[in-house]
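Hi Q.,

Before the meeting this afternoon, I wanted you to have the guanosine-5'-diphosphate prediction in hand. No need to reply - just skim if you have a minute. The sequence and ligand are here:
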Amino acid sequence: MANALEQNVAKRRTFAIISHPDAGKTTITEQLLLYGGIVREAGTVKGKKSGNFAKSDWMEIEQKRGISVTSSVMQFDYQGKRINILDTPGHEDFSEDTYRTLMAVDSAVMVIDAAKGIEAQTKKLFKICKMRGIPIFTFMNKMDRDSRDPIELISQLEDVLGIEGYPMNWPIGSGKVLRGLYDRYNNRVALYRPKEGTEKYLPLNDEGELQVASDLPNDEVYQDAKANMDLIQEAGNQFDLEKIKKGDQTPVFFGSALANFGVETFLNAYLDFAPMPGDHENTLDDEEVQPTNPNFSGFVFKIQANMNPRHRDRIAFVRVCSGEFERGMDVKLERTDKKLRLSNVTEFVANTRENVENAVAGDIIGLYDTGNFQIGDTIYTGKQAVKFPPLPQFTPELFMRVSAKNVMKQKSFHKGIHQLVQEGAVQLYTTYSTGDYILGAVGQLQFEVFQFRMQNEYNSEVVMEPLGHKIARWIDPDQLDESMSSSRNILVRDTHDQPLFLFENTFAERWFHDKYPDVKLMSKL
Ligand code: GDP
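Predicted structure with the ligand bound:
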């Protein structure tokens, strides 16, 4: 008989939705919340923008503080499981935090606009999930609109992302002629907008033929879909759970989030295969920390600064990896070896109080932070010290030259910049030629947060000169010759003293390759 902690952990499913802006992430999230019985007015997932908050106490707290916690983690219960959805902001909010959030999930759901196929941001986020080797589930959205050829969509997964697609169902038409889904996983046809009073699902027999009388087999759209499904059955990828677990194969579901078609089928199948929280490596002894270990442990994957000048505090988001979180508990911060009491300064990321009482592996807690935490920090209880692996560094794409507006205030400028860099807010580079500071980020918002916090927390007004998009490539210091730097690249060093070039564009990078064919250039993630 499993103990209470084991039972609780086994219930957890923690994932993020990765997608390109406008693919339908918000729409599908809202549908999922509805299945979880969390009724919100449409638009509240994006409530930060619309200002349309549901009336719960702690949303009010959030609103006052101007920190969007609710939209960062959404928790609900569904069919005996406790589901945590971690938001990965897109649009202008895209930042390194978005990437780091993917370090805190056990699986990912990739939403693709079926009319557009795989888009840029999906590709970037996918890369991180792939690196982690976590299961990835795909939802091909907007089938109520004319879509690309589904066969093309499946092969694109392999060609562009390098992951096998296994269609769990197949669309019968799209747009105006969308008839339904040929659902081979549940062996049934799901009808899109069935006539009132008729069945939503038509059962299939073992041969995949309709078991009940229907006009569908005479419909060309159905015949087409069936022929494709048969072809895929014969010549397509075999369903392979081991590959799915490692992120080498993705189960693919078609549907329409807006029409709430195929979403429930997706959610149920997702829960059949999505993993519960797994082990995490303790780098101090090379052993794995099991989620059911009674000692508490977790790591900080995101620090959200408060943009409200009246509140300097920040929230450190902690992914729980083992044990049980209790209000007021004492933990050790591994980096400093100091004890911290997580008392009433602690806020939880949850939507009801009872969720709060047992935050276990897979759950996310938000700690009000006055400067104790850094990105990647481990906290733990018990005699055995724990340190989780450092969070990876990401290759920045946007750059700014930065300096102090007031040359007399160099001290606060340097203090601020170094603290914010340490915290993971932005990345810092120094030019070889002049020793100038250049900031790197994956999203524009990081610069804005940086500028704001320099002013408000360190009383340092900064001057920022945009350098735009650059391609950052690291070079082996032994191969470096400073004369390799030209007008088409900037030679800088990172905070670990490693040299890298910031290339103007791919053309400049290729030119460099041609000129120095033996020099190996490397990127981070
Ligand atoms: P996000 O940026 O990925 O969060 O995308 P949203 O969920 O905000 O959706 C972007 C737009 O696409 C909105 O206008 C949605 O109403 C629309 N949309 C989302 N899902 C569907 C769908 O299944 N079908 C259609 N036709 N539109 C959709």
